[in-house]
Amino acid sequence: MASIRIHHLYKRYGKDKHAVVKDFHMDIEDKEFIVFVGPSGCGKSTTLRMIAGLEEISEGELYIGDRLVNHVPPKDRDISMVFQNYALYPNMSVFENIAFGLRMAKLPRHEIDQAVKNAARILEIESFLNRKPRHLSGGQRQRVALGRAIVRNPKLFLMDEPLSNLDAKLRVSMRMEIIKLHKNLETTFIYVTHDQVEAMTMADRIVVMKDGIIQQIDSPEQIYSTP
Length: 227
Ligand code: ADP
Ligand code: ADP
Description:
By secondary structure, the protein is α/β, with parallel strands linked by helices. Helices cover 35% and strands 27% of the residues.
């Protein structure tokens, strides 16, 4: 049983209902690491945002687990999303940034403490839980953003170019961190990038997109051995 079923999704904009995502169709297995790759403007983000519930689906059905979620708001989809701009709260400590979602969900204090410490341990950011984001490096900030996403223990993890603001060296090491994180968490990941090397090194399966249409879905080995 696939954990995410994406059935013939379309996204249309404007008066002329121009489709920027056309007939996006695939099943994703539980715990798979899926990467959407393709040039800027090909519809990767829009597809991801429809899965997240940040963008309305124009046509098609989306199932997370057994549940049709077309009209389910983002906070009830059992997902977490990480963006390229870390979107941390500047006036809160790292601890408070990670705890924020759990506080909103009114979890008891000791559970919040436990969950934040656990996330911090996995991402090796325990030593700066009391600092403000402005005192952190880019890589550290992105770890905090990841911490904020994993602390909610989501069924599905969505990432939109999370590393593209980092310098080349950091990008390579964070890539490894994310692969480790995926192994550690045993959840389904969908990761958007325009970087083929990223796709190649991280994915179980790669979805190649062009002009809003899926060109190919296959393992990295298959994709990059195809002439
Ligand atoms: P990618 O993530 O692959 O760079 P996007 O999904 O961001 O591509 O965008 C796909 C296409 O949809 C682009 O041509 C973009 O300009 C267009 N688009 C995205 N959002 C909107 C919107 N709100 N209104 C109209 N067009 C949009
Ligand atoms: P990215 O390239 O990082 O995916 P964009 O810069 O394409 O993001 O889009 C930023 C925001 O602007 C998004 O909310 C997107 O929906 C919106 N947007 C993108 N293209 C258009 C467009 N042609 N018309 C209206 N809104 C757009």
